[in-house]
Structure formats: C-alpha cells, structure tokens
Amino acid sequence: MASDQQEHLVDQRQPEGQEQPAVAKMPVTAPSRYSSRVILKTILNRNDNGLGLAGERLVIGGWVKSSKELTKEEPVKTSDALVNAGTPTDFTCAEVIQSRIPFLRTIIKVFGGQGNNVHDKLHPFMAKLPQPKIVYLQISDGSCVQTLQIVVHSSLVPPSQIMFTGTCVLVEGILQQSSVKGKRVIELKAERILHVGTVDHAKYPLSRKRIPVDELRDHAHFRARTTTVASVMRIRNALSHATRTFFHNNRFLNVEVPIITATDSEGSSEKFYVTTLSGHQTKMKNPISMDDAASVTLRSVKASIAEKHRQVEELMRTGSNKEAVAAALQDIRKTDDLAHQLEARERLRADHANAKTNEPNVSNDFFPCETYSTVSGRLHLESYACALGNVYSFGPRFRAERSESKKSLPEMSMVELEMAFSQLEDAVNCATDVLKFLCAWVLEHCSEDLMFVSKRLDSTILDRLQSIAVGSFEKISYAEAINNLKKDTGRKFDVKIDHGIPLSEELQCYIADEIYKRPVIIYNYPKEHKPFYVRVNDDGKTAAAFDLIVPKVGTLIRGSQNEERFNMLESRIKELNLPKNQYEWYLDLRRHGTARTSGFSLVFDLLVLQATGLNDVRDVIPFPRSFGKACN
Amino acid sequence: MASDQQEHLVDQRQPEGQEQPAVAKMPVTAPSRYSSRVILKTILNRNDNGLGLAGERLVIGGWVKSSKELTKEEPVKTSDALVNAGTPTDFTCAEVIQSRIPFLRTIIKVFGGQGNNVHDKLHPFMAKLPQPKIVYLQISDGSCVQTLQIVVHSSLVPPSQIMFTGTCVLVEGILQQSSVKGKRVIELKAERILHVGTVDHAKYPLSRKRIPVDELRDHAHFRARTTTVASVMRIRNALSHATRTFFHNNRFLNVEVPIITATDSEGSSEKFYVTTLSGHQTKMKNPISMDDAASVTLRSVKASIAEKHRQVEELMRTGSNKEAVAAALQDIRKTDDLAHQLEARERLRADHANAKTNEPNVSNDFFPCETYSTVSGRLHLESYACALGNVYSFGPRFRAERSESKKSLPEMSMVELEMAFSQLEDAVNCATDVLKFLCAWVLEHCSEDLMFVSKRLDSTILDRLQSIAVGSFEKISYAEAINNLKKDTGRKFDVKIDHGIPLSEELQCYIADEIYKRPVIIYNYPKEHKPFYVRVNDDGKTAAAFDLIVPKVGTLIRGSQNEERFNMLESRIKELNLPKNQYEWYLDLRRHGTARTSGFSLVFDLLVLQATGLNDVRDVIPFPRSFGKACN
C-alpha cells in the first residue's frame, strides 16, 4: 500500500449494523473484521453450501491446494476488462506485459489483420502469444476442510504464477453457481487479483498430494497448509477451548504457574536448566580459577622446580659427586609431580565451588540458585487452591527425557488442577467428567474435521469418541489390576507379574486395550510408585493416587489426593532423600491452614491424539521438539 | 478417611437433577460437584444475599479471615448434642477430652452438687474448666469478596484451634438469619467440625490485617488468602477468560508456540538458555578433553621426560662427563616446558570446540544447537497464520533483563496474534477492539472485586476502565508524536527531543498521561527502532509498526505489519547482522506463498495492572520471578 495511505490511520470499517454506501453493494456475508476478505467457512458451511450467496461480490484469500487449466477459444476481453483487472503489485515487469498481451493482440488484429504470422512480423517478441486459458483453483484459507473453487481467466494473471500448490492469492470476484456439476455448488469468478505470493515449485516441500504425516514433521512451518494437519489443528483448538469452557462452567480459576522454578515437583532428575550463561560462557571460563593461597602454593612449587634445575646445573658445573646430582634430579621429579597434582586439585576445587547450589553464585548467573523449566505445576497450584478453592493451569511443561517415544516429548502441553476440600474420589470424578465433556464437545463442534480424519487417518475415531463420551469407565485398584494381569494367560510380558511391580505404560495399556476395552481408572498404588506429595493411605502401604488409561492412547491422566498432614509429608521428603529446603514453602502450606486437596494432570497432547486417531504426538504439536534434533 | 472407604471408589454423587433420599434433605444450593462443600459465592452473591436459604443444612469450607470470641453463660448442652457434635478427626487426644469436659461437668453436677469446688475435689485435673464460649468466625473460600460468618460453640472445638487468621475449617451446619444486626443477613450455625487445619500463629506471616501488597510479595504461596490478592487473581482470571472469548468469537485459532526455541525472534541478547547440563555438570566436566592426536602427543612428551630422567641417572651412574649430563638436564627442562604448553593449548581448544553453536555438540547437551526460552511467539505464529488465517497464542515469554522494573519481569504472560491478509490498520483496529472488549468485560463481570479494589487500591479504577471501554483513542504517527513533545515546553526530559530519537517508555507515557490523557496509538516508527521483521514503508525510512500506550500503565501493546517481501526481509536480516541460518525457515514463508500478515503482542500482566490499579507486576503475577532473587 502507498505510504500516503498509511500516513493517516483511519478506521474505515463501518460500525456493525450500518449500511455501506450504495456504490459498493453490501455483501450478505460480512468481511472478517480485520481483513477485507470473507472467511470461507461462513460461505461453505452454510446449510445451502453457499448457493444463496450467488451474485455477491466479495474478496477471498487463501492458498492453492490444487488447480487445473483449460485452454479455451473465447472472445478476447475488452480493454475495459483488462484495465479493471488492475495492476498486480507483486509481479515483475515481464509478467505485466504478458498480461497485457491479449489487449495488444486486439490492436494488432484490428490494424494488422488476422493470423499469427502478422503478429510475428510486427512484434517479434510476441512471437509466442499464449492461448487464453481458464484456470480453476481450489483455495483453502484454513477455516474449514472444504475448498472454494476460483475461476481465473489468464488475462488477469499468467497461470504459471498461480497454479502451483501453496501459492497465496487474494482475489476479488463474484460468487456464482458452480460451472462444473458435482459436489461443489458455488465458485468465485475472479475479477481482480489483489495479491499473489508465488511458490518456487521445485523447492516447495508440499508440492505433492497426500504427503504422509511423518514426512510432514520436517516442515513444521508449512504443514498446516495441508488439509490433514489443518484439521488436526482445528480439532486441537476446539479441545483447548472446550477444556477452558469446562473449568469456567465449574468455577475453576485459571492460575498461571511459573515456568522458571527452583522446585523440583517430582524429585526427578530429567530437567532442563535455565541459565543466562551460554555454553560459550560456561566453558570458556578459565577452569583454573584459583584462590590466592592455592595459587601461591603452586607458583612457589614451580619456582622451586626452576631453582632446583639451576642448582643441579651448578652441581654439575662445580663437579659435585654424582650421588648428590642424582638425589637432586630425583627431587626435581618429585616436585614436578607435586606441581601436577596441585594443578589438578585446583581445577577440581574451582569447579566444585562454582557448582554449589543455594549459595550466592559467583558465576554471574541470573538467579542465585539452580532454576529449571518446570516439570509440573501442581505444587504451586495447591498453594492457590488453599486460598481460592478450585484452580487450574494449562500450559507447557518440560521433561528432558532422552528416550524416543511417540507419546512423550521434551515440551508438552499439560492441563493441571487442584481442588481444596476434596479427596481422591472427587479427583477421579472430575477427571472422568472432563474427558467425557471433551469428547462430547469435539463430536458436536468438529463434525466436518472429524469426518475428514476418520476417512484419512482412522475410521474408528467417531465410535471411540462416542463410547468415551457416553460409556462407563472401569475402576479398579492396583491390587485388582495385578490380579487381572496374572490371571490373563493369553499374553507374555517382559516382567513377571507380581504385587509390588511398577505398572508400566505397556501393562496399563494392555489392561485398557485388551482386558477391559474401555477407559480404565487404576487407584491406590504402592506408595513407592508415586511422587512424594501423594497422601499415604491408612494401610501405610498404598498411596491415594490414580491413573486414567484410555485405549489406544495410554495414560492420559495422573492424579492424587495430596498429603495434608505435616508430619507425614516431612517424613516422605526425608525418606526419599529430597532436598528439604526446596520444599519449605510447600511444607508451610501444611503448617498453616492445611486443607485436604486433590488434583490431577492431563496430558493435553495425548488428548489430541485421542481425538484425531494419530499415533505420534509430533503430529499434533505445532512445533515439536525432539531429543538430539535441531529446532527452529 | 479409612482405607476401606478408599478401597472401592464409588461415585456417590447424584446425577444432576435427581433428588437425594429423604433422610438427608436436599439443599437449595447444590454442593460443588467435586467436594461436599457449597461455594460461598452461590450463597452470598444472591439477590437476597442468601436470606432465602435460611434453614438449609450444608457444608462450608474456607479459611479464617478474622474472629471474635464471646464468653456466655448458657445452659450446658445435652449429651445428645455433644455426641452429634461428632469426633473431629484432626485433634490430639487432649483436645478431644477438652471438648468432652462440658459433658463430664454435667455428670459431676448431677452426682456431686453445684459449684466448682466440688469439681476440684472430685477431679483435680479438671480444676480449671473452660467457660463455654461462642466463637464468630469470618470465613472466606476465595470465591468472592464477602465472608460468611460461622458461629461455633466451644463445645464443638476449642476456640484456640480455630480462631487464628489463616486457620482452615470445614464445617457442617444450618444457615440462619444473622444474629448480629448489620450488613450480614445470613450466617452458619456450626453443628459439626469436619476438619481443622491449624495455624502456628506466631510464625504465620499473614496474621496481621491489611498487610501492604509489597510485603505480601515475599509470601507468594500464602498471599492469595488475603482479600486484596484474591480479588486481583479473580480479576486476572476474568481477563484471561475474556481474552480467549474475544478470540473465539472472532474466529481466531489458538496455536501453542514453542517455549524452547533456537530462533531469536527479536535479535536481542537478553535470553535464558535452556540446557540439560547443570552448572555442576558444565564445570565439573574435565576441561582437558583431548582428541586422540593431541593426547598422544602430550602423553608421548611426558613419557619422553620420564625417559630423559632415567637417561640422566644412567649417565650419572656410569660416570659420563658433566657436559653430557648438563645438556641432558637442559633438554628435560625444555621438554617439560613443552608439556605444560601443550596442556594449556588443549584446554583452550577443548573449550572452544564445545562453545561452537549449530554444530554437533560434543558436550552431551540435549539439543545440538543453542536453545532459549522464547522471547516472542510471533514468528512461529506467522507460519500458522499463513495456513489457518487468524491465530493467537497466550502464554509465558522470557527476557533476561537484569534491570529492576515495576512493569517488566523475566517471565511474563503475553497474548500474541497474527492475521493473514491484513495490514497495519487491521492490527491497530484489532488491538483497539481487544482492549475495549476486555475493559467492558471486567466492568460487567467483576463488579464486586472492582468495588473492593477501588476502595482498597485505587479509587479511579472504575472511571478509567469505563473511559477506555467507550472512549476514543488518539492515533498519531511517530513524527507527530515528536512534534508534540517538542511543542510541549512544560516538561524537561533527559534527552533532547528530535526526530530520530527512540521514543522511550517515559516519553510514550508522557504523551498518553499528560498530553492526551487517554490511550494513544503511535505508528510508523523509524525502521531502526523496530525489529527486523517489520514491513518497511515505501518511504524506505519508516516501518509499519505501532505501540498502544495506556495512561498509568504504559505500553500495553506492540504490533506491526510484517515484511512479506523476500528480498526486503533478506536485506534487513543482513543489515542487522543477524545469523541468517536461524531464520531460514522464516524466510521460507516468503519464498513460498507469502501473504501480508499483521499482528501484535499484548503484555497481559500490564492489563491486570490496568484493571486493578496496582503499580507493580509482581503484585499481579501468582509467582513472580525477579533478577537476583531465589525463587520457589
């Protein structure tokens, strides 16, 4: 746009409800509030598929999904039409001339008679005049699965500019009934090309059709232009909205937990440290940073060695006996060894001093103690539950797991909540309600996308979502789960099934997928299998925790009632050898006004797997991060 | 709870709408779905302030805000009443006996006549029987500003257990009309104490009333129990919900941008690095990590020195001439010097190799290139806008600024959006609409909390929110802004006002607070003042960026139209000396199907300042992080 237009920002939108001046007829569909274009969904997802809008003039923007070209003999357009075609602002000079060629042809025909050879004589550079063509573009703008067909005459723009998959176009035209019989009822007849963003077809990675999702992972910044990934992201968005709707309806307050934390919420060691010292800085630092006393020692030892060498030479020069010289040489060697040892010890000492945590950091880092990217927000949420009642958080959590897994990445989205004055059963009920609500929501609000993914990815998706939304979940204790696995002779596991073994993801999935064939809640685990903050049951052996496992997806939710008794919590921290000072603030909650709380974490990305039929979380996260891989 | 109750998880809730059995009368207010308690807001925020619920039996949970105690002569309760009082489960044995003392007194009176001295003779340990007392507790559960009065007879629980501020109680009782005339119309007469979480009054940091907000910052895990902070957090929650409602209504899709990134979105150097090497690990690593060739060299040199020593000894032993021995000694010394030099060089080489970025990292870090906690998500959002149209993200962003500021912390919440097929004016319009919508929303939905903060924190808050919601904003270019500042002789600034100077926060605030006294949008800045991705205007000097400054709060929103032209963007990256390889994927968006996009970032925490009248973001963020301070 010309700078004079931008010099004065004028809000040219009509206040809602007001009619635009008669010169530009007001469309039945309104343009998006922050763009001149009309969103495709508002046309195509109407009951009449847009047919009632035929005759409307509007602007459509989007990306080419596919195209075809027909060569037609047709009357050459008048110059008016060509002028009205406007000057595309993003074309090179050659392209502008090309678009004018039909006009020039008209002039030549009028003045120079028919036939191409006349053109050749008169205008050598016009030797190969392109035949008029009609281009049919299938355009998507990411608002729905369906595409809109746009009919573009080659007089408006050279087909080569717009035909390739991935090309961006902004087009003004008139909606008309589809010229081609079939499932499409409406199309746009282009009158002006307002913008073209071309594609380097040879290099564009998404030129082919139906690229498998695993190949798309390498092109995270483009892949949402494919129908599959766009559907997945719309479903993801719907689930995100539904989650927050559930909490809002149930009077949960949203509380942001800190991402940078010094509290290790699960006592795990797989953490990402957060520091302002870059790798360059931490390693370039002189590893031999010696304090005064030690450096004096080492320097004096080295000086002593130099002196001893001189003494030996003096001995030699003055003809001293060989025993004296030999003794002196041995002495040099020992002193040299000592020097090496001192140097090594100094390096260790300096490293150790800089590595101490919770003390003023001499190394210039931003915070005085070690800080991590948070693994879980539940501890912080508890403190807010013990003031505001029901609270939740929904955001990124981090785990530096070096193993490759389709269900787990270093950075994932988690939904966490804590409820005051509630117990294990309440957390289980809430988890059940959340899952059912979300499945019902996506069935109701994402039917077009679900139809698409059920055809393209997983034909069982609708049935599975429905059965979770309305069916019952199995609830068994850990002890019952072990018994069931023992009784099940149909399958061999890597471990011997016995009470006390950890219920691995594999075992849990087997229980849900094969034994019960529906979501399963397992509760009352051995306390050793669960984090320190889980309330120990009265039997002293089990802990009030639960996992909710969904067939095909795995452990979607992990929850617990939290230990509200100060003495019990303090013992657990000691028992597990956790650094107590890190948890003083958390113990404080038990010292002063402790309440029974319970809550859970829901792995949001697994929920999106659940609702799309995909198997790998890298396909449902906008920009997935993997161990050992560079990222953008 | 007894373990047998937890062994079988049974959902004891009635499906919504069903009547509970007649034995327990169904309350008019329903308990919270995941707790036995009724949320106070559902009682106190009724039109009749809860009066119509008198006679209802229900459970209330919360924390004591204040209390008072009255000693009363009253008929001693019957044993039935005492039995019905139940056994509080969290008391020590001594407390249980104490609660039974009135019952024992009854027995003594019946059998032993009237008068305390008789008690003394019969039961020495009962020499000091406590007088019956009535305790009036003001309880808050975090759902609203108002508290509920609970009347507790000391026969139920010793007053010292429950009276202190911060004590947690869960109480079953009957709602009754308030016994005390005043603004309270309803109170709960306690019948059973179900839970008490006591407070160590001497150590509890929130014992006093009306602690100033800056003192509360040191107690982030408790401070939401104060009415002020609870109101602030409820307003924050409402703004969060309103933000997402706005985007949902306007067809924006929520897209999570990565927190761990290798893309520096603003070319700034104040970043937090993310690594799996702890300070301990990075420094404990042997700084002399030598490759094979170099280590062989050093080892062979050291072996050679040892050999030379032996040779000298042999020379001595065999009586060789002194010149030979002297020469041998000199040789040893030189070789030893060489060994030291080699060692030092190896250390430097190893450090240098490990500090290189974008190359396979030999140091065992998680990702092969340097990764940061993201400063801004707008670049990643753009790629999704160029596929899905309108997208937004709402989450934590990080800036390792070492300066102290009331408006800026290392970790803050940002709302960011990008819109395809839109320009600068569209982004400005959207920013204006968002701000107005949010102010109008909080005025409509948070009246009780706003009334409270307007009395406690800032009496102008309601007017200011109203004027933003309905008033107009000033829109001026950078050039006009400079002219206005020059013309304004009423104030001296630290810098000379001239075209080309950066518009600091101070200058921007002056324009909004003093010159226009309402929100101001300044646009078309000199291109040097704005990030590399901002579209350069046709004048070649200014960039299509804007800032939205709100009086008292500062620069709330920063936005721009983005450079969609490949050549221009590439030049800017080169001009600013940015590492081009980091931005290849971003340049790709211009190579293939570029669209005009615009967007902005909104500093959510400043919005909460705006809506609460506070001045320091540490008072509106649940767990604020500050430079140089330890955190939990």
From TrEMBL, chains A, B:
- Top-level taxon of origin: Eukaryota
Q: What span is annotated as the signal peptide, if there is one?
A: none
Question: One of this protein's GO BP terms?
Answer: asparaginyl-tRNA aminoacylation
Q: Which SUPFAM superfamilies match?
A: Class II aaRS and biotin synthetases
The record's InterPro entries line, in alphabetical order, gives:
Aa-tRNA-synt_II, aa-tRNA-synth_II/BPL/LPL
Recorded GO molecular functions are: asparagine-tRNA ligase activity; ATP binding
* Gene Ontology CC terms, in alphabetical order: mitochondrion
Residue ranges under compositional bias (Basic and acidic residues)?
Answer: 1-16
Where does the Aminoacyl-tRNA synthetase class II (D/K/N) domain start and stop, copy by copy? Answer: 219-276, 365-625
Could you list this entry's UniProt keywords, alphabetically sorted.
Answer: Aminoacyl-tRNA synthetase, ATP-binding, Ligase, Nucleotide-binding, Protein biosynthesis
List the protein's name: Aminoacyl-tRNA synthetase class II (D/K/N) domain-containing protein
Organism, by scientific name, is Daucus carota subsp. sativus (Carrot)
